[in-house]
Amino acid sequence: MHLGRLHLPCFALCLSLSMACEPASERKPPVRPDDTADASASASVTEIDTALGGQIYDKWFKVEGYTGGFSPDAKTTEAIDGVAGPNDDGTLNNRDGQPVANTGHDYRLKNLFGWDLRGTEGVYGPDYQNKSYVRATNLLTDTRTPAELVAWFTRGDDTLPAFGEVLSPAQIEALVGFVVAVRDGALPRPDQIFALSTDAPKNYTLVDGADAAAGTASFGQRCSGCHGDAGQEILIDGDYTVGAFGRMKAYEGWLKVLNGHPGSPMARQSDDAQEILNIFAALCDRTAFPPHDAEHEVADGDLRCGAYLK
Ligand code: HEC
Fold first, then answer.
1. H or E stretch at 182
2. Chain centroid to CA 167
């Protein structure tokens, strides 16, 4: 299978971006790729690394290639005590150059829009996990063009940080490539993996239609080399085997399988929605994929795995 990169049409992002970032008086005429090249060359496609874009969405200051040393200002301390960024203190600025306070989002896009990209309509919204910092924009129903999204993420708005101050144009292009690919169905969409639930812990349930046996086979091919045959070799956040994590936080784990885990050797593992669903259904088997301890495990009848729980 073809993993890691998707071919998407060139958005002409760089052109619109360089114009968007400069005051009108300083605008230079757009640079054409090569006016002497033949017509077929100008119709070429740009390779957008949507896995990198997804990791930027997850935790931009941990991705490979980011060298800014940013560490967010801690929300729990009174002092502004982060590292690096445009103010050299772990804050980012809004469109008007004013620092955006860290209310717990740590300037991560997954916090500002949720692990399902749906903003307040999604898993972090008021009907579900009710995170105070999640924004109203649903990136999956947003109709802006890629170039408009690039300009928005680059400059920010009144409360959205201006990510152009810490990310390169290519990184923002990858971020937008990821968002648009999920939105338009070129990559798996969250609703192919889980449904929102007001009853279930963490407010999600895996959707129907998984083949858990196929998921076990995929786990053996793609995951066990690092996580171990029973998923116990890496303890996630110190306490979760990959099995327990899958049973308790698949709404987050789906994005890790899709894009990789920023700052770790785990790269994109699958860009196939059915395969990702199958893997999380397989991880619902508590015997095949045991927990680290009873505290980090689901109870009998837990709704997150639904009928897949064994
Ligand atoms: C190249 C090694 C490697 C492979 C292959 C791999 N992982 Fe990982 N995975 C890791 C490492 C390392 C971490 C980070 C653990 C940490 O620091 O908490 C991780 C973290 C995770 C996390 C938790 C991320 C978080 O939020 O902290 C999940 C879920 C996960 N892996 C699932 C999988 C699944 C499912 C597969 C197979 C489809 C897989 N991994 C394949 C190495 C790997």
1. helix 169-184
2. 15
Residue with the smallest CA separation from ligand 1 atom 1 is 266
Give the DSSP letter of residue 4: S
Instruction: Name 77's Cβ contacts closer than 8 Å, sequence gap at least 6.
Output: none
Which helix (DSSP H) or strand (DSSP E) does residue 273 occupy? Answer: helix 273-282
Compute the mean pLDDT over every residue in the chain, rounded to the nearest whole number: 88
Angle, helices 13-20/146-155, rounded to nearest 10 degrees: 40
257 CA → ligand 1 middle, Å:
8
Chain center to CA of 267: 13
d(CA 172, CA 53): 8
CB–CB of 68/166 below 8 Å?
yes
User: What is the pTM (predicted TM-score) of this model?
Assistant: 0.86
Average pLDDT rounded to a whole number, residues 278-294: 97
CA of 266 to the centre of ligand 1 (A): 5
The string of pLDDT tens digits covering residues 234-271 is 999 989 999 999 999 999 999 999 999 999 999 999 99
> Domains, the chain, ranges and CATH?
6-21+47-187 (no CATH), 192-308 (1.10.760)
Give 92's contacts (C-beta < 8 A, 6+ positions apart): 85, 86, 99, 100, 107, 156, 161, 162, 163, 165, 166
Lowest mean pLDDT among 73-77, 181-185, 285-289: 73-77
Question: Which residue has its alpha carbon closest to ligand 1 atom 16?
Answer: 236
The C-alpha atoms of residue 127 and residue 263 are separated, in whole angstroms, by 32
Measured CA to CA, the distance from residue 133 to residue 136 in angstroms comes to 10
Q: Which residues are near ligand 1 (CB < 6 Å)?
A: 222-223, 225-227, 234, 236-237, 242, 245, 252-253, 256-257, 261, 264-266, 269, 279
